[in-house]
Every structure is written in structure tokens, then in C-alpha cells.
Amino acid sequence: MKKLEEKLKNPVWYSLDETHNKFLITYDGTQFYQPDICIFGSFFYESKTASALNEYAKIAERFFLVSEKQIPTIDTDYVVLERKIEGCQMVLEKLPEINITEDIVLLTESHIDEVYNLIWLVMPGFYQKKGFKMGKFFGIFKNNKLVSITGQRMQTEDFIEVSSVVTHPDYTRKGYAKQLVAYTTKEILKENKLPILHTNKGNSAIPLYEKLGYRLTRDMNWWLFRRK
């Protein structure tokens, strides 16, 4: 059994090996999510990524490989590197006591369209509607309108990732994201799993996550490819 630290170095791989195995597509040692769920893939051997990317590009126009330090190889006749997104991984050290004053709701499949529309309004381009199936989503409503959410994305037997931290632009600076991240973190701890999250380097939200007890642990890079 792999140790937690090893799994954190390659979270997409081990999520697909464990909790999300039902979403797995594999090509000769490179693993991907089904593209209608999530457009992430992972690998251990750089020499095997080029042919795998060619195959996955047949069913997904744009997609990511996620790695800590490794650099994937590509076949430029079929796949183009659009950009490398420099990210980082944060792991919960200790959750401080946070006063939850908002009514936080566990979202259901009846909210799928609202979740999708809110994420695409704030962070367009990558979230797949069926990504709702990856884990629990929580939300805050105002006047019967979903205005802020958090979700769960990658997960294994040991950790669950907090993701999709999104607030409608008309409802920012009200502490909704802080309360939702704290609430989601508590829900993960109830399952005796480690809360983690990923974000871009330099993200203005990093100080908030640090106040909530998360600490930066490693780089985690997203290589964004597109079909040529």
C-alpha cells in the first residue's frame, strides 16, 4: 500500500487508482479521467505520454497532465502544448475555529446546472458538468440564487481535495468562501481523511487558505494540451 506522501505527489493518478477508478481511462501507463467528468491525466514515465496524449486527444479537444516535477513528452504532429500552469499543493495542518453563520446546503443533482453556470461565469473553460459526480458540493443561496460554492474533486482512501471555490462577483467580500472552505474541510475530517487543495502560484486566495490552517507543501503543475 502506498504511503500518503507518495499519493500526494501524484494525486490524479492515485485518485483514479482508488476512489475514482470508475472514471478511469488508461493508455499504456498514462491515466486519464473520462473527459465528460474531468479533463485531467497523470503519469509516471515521461517516455509514455506522447502516444497516450495522441489517443486521448481523439476524445478530448483540450486536457491537462498534472505533475509535480516531471515534464511530459508530446508528439507535435497531433498535440500542442497550450501552456503550463504553475500551481501548488496545500495540505491542512490544523483547522482553526471558524464561526459558520451562513446556511450551507449540501447540493444535489437538481443543482448541477446552477453549479456549472456559476463555475463557468467565474472560472470559464475547464469544469465539466459531470464533475459534480467526483464528490460532494456545498453552497450558499441568497434570494433562492446559488451565489457561492465549494466542491470536492480528487480523492483517495487517504485524502479529499477541496475544489471549485467560487463566488458570484456580486456577492464577494462577504466571507462566503471562507465559511464554505472551513465547512467542507470539517466534512472531510469527519471521514478521517486529509483535506488538501490546489491553486495557482500567487493566487490571492492563498492567504485565506493559510488562515484556515492550510500550508504550502509542493509545486503541482498543470500542462494544458489541445488537439492539433
Describe this structure in words.
Helices cover 23% and strands 35% of the residues. A hairpin with a 6-residue loop joins strand 2 and strand 3. It folds into 2 domains: 4-88 and 223-227, no CATH class; 90-218, Aminopeptidase. The protein is α+β, with helices and mostly antiparallel strands and 228 residues long. The model has no long low-confidence stretch (mean pLDDT 96). The N and C termini lie far apart (39 Å). The protein has a 7-stranded mixed beta sheet. Strands 1-2-3-4-13-5 form a 6-stranded mixed beta sheet.
Briefly characterize the structure.
The protein is an alpha+beta fold.
Topology readout:
Layout: H1 4-9, H2 11-17, E1 24-27, E2 30-33, E3 40-43, H3 49-56, E4 62-67, E5 79-85, E6 87-92, E7 104-106, H4 112-122, E8 137-142, E9 145-155, E10 159-167, H5 176-190, E11 194-200, H6 206-211, E12 214-219, E13 221-227
Parallel strand pairs: 3-4, 10-11
Antiparallel strand pairs: 1-2, 2-3, 4-13, 5-13, 6-11, 6-12, 7-8, 8-9, 9-10
**Protein structure class:** alpha+beta
- End-to-end distance: 39 Å
- What would the CATH topology of the largest domain be? Aminopeptidase
CATH superfamily of the largest domain: Gcn5-related N-acetyltransferase (GNAT)
Radius of gyration in whole Å, from Cα?
17 Å
Strand content: 35-45%
Order the strands across the largest sheet as they lie in space: 7-8-9-10-11-6-12
Q: How many helical stretches?
A: 6
Oligomer: single chain
Order of helices and strands: HHEEEHEEEEHEEEHEHEE
The level of helicity is 10-25%
| Architecture (CATH level 2) name of the largest domain | 3-Layer(aba) Sandwich
The tally of domains stands at 2
Total number of β-strand segments? Answer: 13
Catalogue the unreliable spans.
Answer: none
Describe the main β-sheet briefly.
7 strands, mixed
Estimate the mean pLDDT confidence.
96
